[in-house]
Write a structure and sequence with these properties.
With 289 residues, the chain is of the alpha+beta class. It has helices spanning 3-8, 24-38, 71-79, 84-102, 119-132, 167-172, 177-189, 251-267, and strands at 43-47, 55-60, 64-69, 111-118, 143-147, 150-157, 162-164, 196-200, 203-207, 233-239, 242-247, 276-280, 283-286. It has three domains: 3-102, no CATH class; 107-189, no CATH class; 194-286, no CATH class. It has a six-stranded antiparallel beta sheet.
């Protein structure tokens, strides 16, 4: 497989079970072993379940507790079993970042961050809300149009949970309109030192923490000097944890990027858009090329 195909090409189907490929239980045990080695004073417990339900509960000194979902990490491993060490390293980096955030002085108050969603997600969420609470006066979250089928909403990220920022909470925090967006983007920008760009030659994948990777497209002006593309930057925002970019004048890359965006958006448990988006005039626009 060429480097280009490895970066943008379609993911291979999950391999058939064999002695060389870990099943979900074995993967969880390997991950738990890495956690025990890194945090000898922690209490580690594997909670079995289906791929999208299984997790590892972690209790760290200082009353820090978290549940680590295994589904996405295991799917990444199945797509490239030879990259097991890299997948686990990414997960361990996320745990250390979680520990750092939980130990911060303002952890309990939570941090407001932007999250990219789709219009379809919003429609389904509103249908579910109306079915469950016909008397509800307003949605429990705020949304803004972004580009194409994408929207932006906001979450409050705390040590214990991640919840949508409600209109009432935004009012209490005195966050309105441009002030809300600017505040959330500035908070997201604090993660920029952790942004890793893989690839080269006009084809890149952006990696963060598997939660806010897609949102880094909103901050492109703050890291655009780290990449070189031919023409305008074109993004695939295919999933919460999948952000890729190439140039508008690179036809071959665009074709591959479009194909992988369609595949990931369908298959990922965190799928977003099958479309492409161009960075133009300081913001994202639907790419029609």
């Amino acid at each position: 497989m060429s480097f280009f195909s490895k970066l943008f090409g379609r993911k291979p189907a999950a391999p058939a079970a064999s002695s060389s490929v870990l099943d979900l239980k074995a993967f969880a045990e390997r991950f738990a072993g890495e956690l025990r080695d890194a945090f000898p004073d922690a209490h580690i417990r594997i909670v079995p379940g289906a791929q999208n339900d299984a997790r590892i509960d972690v209790s760290l000194p200082g009353e820090i507790q978290a549940g680590l979902q295994l589904g996405n990490a295991y799917q990444r491993y199945l797509s490239a079993p030879q990259e097991l060490d890299a997948v686990l390293a990414d997960q361990m980096a996320s745990v250390r970042e979680m520990q750092r955030r939980l130990a911060s002085d303002d952890a309990d108050a939570g941090v407001v961050l932007p999250v990219i969603k789709t219009r379809e997600w919003h429609e389904v969420a509103m249908q579910q809300l109306r079915a469950a609470q016909p008397e509800a006066a307003q949605a429990p979250f705020l949304i803004e149009p972004l580009a194409g089928d994408l929207i932006v909403t906001y979450v409050v990220d705390t040590p214990a949970s991640m919840s949508f920022l409600s209109p009432q909470e935004a009012e209490e925090r005195e966050l309105h309109g441009e002030a809300l967006r600017g505040h959330a983007l500035d908070n997201l920008a604090k993660l920029l030192p952790e942004l890793e760009l893989k690839g080269g030659g006009g084809r890149y994948a952006a990696r963060l923490d598997r939660n806010y990777d897609a949102g880094m497209a909103l901050l492109f002006d703050r890291w655009r000097e780290r990449i070189e593309v031919r023409g305008e930057p074109v993004f695939a925002i295919a999933a919460r944890d999948e952000l890729m970019v190439c140039g508008s004048e690179d036809g071959e890359s665009l074709a591959e990027l479009r194909g992988i965006a369609q595949e990931i958006s369908r298959s990922s448990p965190y799928g977003l858009s099958a479309g492409l988006f161009v960075w133009r005039d300081g913001g994202l626009r639907a790419f029609e090329g």
